[in-house]
Amino acid sequence: MKLDLFHLDAFARRPFEGNPAAVCPLDEWLDDVVMQAIASENNLSETAFFVREGEGCRLRWFTPSVEVDLCGHATLASAWVLFHEMGERREMLRFFTRSGELRVSRADEGLAMDFPAKQSEPMADSEAVLAAVGVANADVRITDDILVAVDDEAIVAALKPDMHALKALPGRGVVVTAPGHEFDIVSRWFGPKAGVDEDPVTGSAHTSLAPYWSERLGKRRLSAQQGGLRKGELVCEEQGDRVILTGQVVPYLRGTITI
After folding, report:
1. pTM here?
2. Would you say 153 and 178 are in contact if contact means Cβ atoms under 8 Å apart?
3. Is 58 exposed, middle or buried (0-12, 13-18, 19+ CB in 10 A)?
4. What is the rounded distance in angstroms from the CA atom of residue 11 to the CA atom of residue 145?
5. What is the DSSP letter of 16?
6. How far out from the chain centre does Cα 203 lie?
7. What are the residue numbers of the active site?
8. What mean pLDDT do residues 56-68 have?
9. CA distance 152 to 167
10. What φ, ψ does residue 192 adopt, rounded to 5°?
11. Tens digits of per-residue pLDDT, 1-45?
12. Which of 92, 101, 141, 194 could pair with 147 in a Cys bridge, judged by C-beta atoms 3.0 to 4.6 Å apart?
């Protein structure tokens, strides 16, 4: 069996920026074990698989070790493949996922994803979080991720968290964030439990970050940069129970999987 495979940099303006994702369009679903093996072989933070279904596509995402409920950058990459490699002419795509229906539209600044917003709540027991991340003081909150807000982007840049300690924390991963200078907000996301020690740009994390910072900064539209050594950028627009995440995609490689 031969399958098309696309390797793209999402939330990037040029190659080698943003977050790499693999996208594998399918005519019908493979066995879950096979899809997980492909994702492990690709060894990228996410591999996306989609199958056309009615007026949209059923979309699933796999890290090298687990299937996940939501992934922003691989959704963005999947939409780019449909628009630019598979001849999709519609202005808006519908993806059916474990997190509900997601929509991606063409936009002046790239592609715009319409995701559900996540409202964070204060986390009562935060000492283990602060110790694992390596910061003394922060506003610690939780959705599906733990959100750690600090006052200075220099703290975010200098982070050297304890990955073993992070694995013991609740939630999917930990995002550390601060107000920025060039961008409204900056962040880094760590998810060793999901097989990704650090993700360069995590679209799904911004469904929590956008409502949080929109309230704190008094702005509905936020420019955002994420990453450590490798960085990417996006624009977040808070719209009540939804968040619009806009970014660009740069193709890197097209190949064929043989299994």
Report:
1. 0.91
2. yes
3. middle
4. 20
5. T
6. 3
7. 46
8. 96
9. 25
10. -60, -25
11. 999 999 999 999 999 999 999 999 999 999 999 999 999 999 999
12. 141
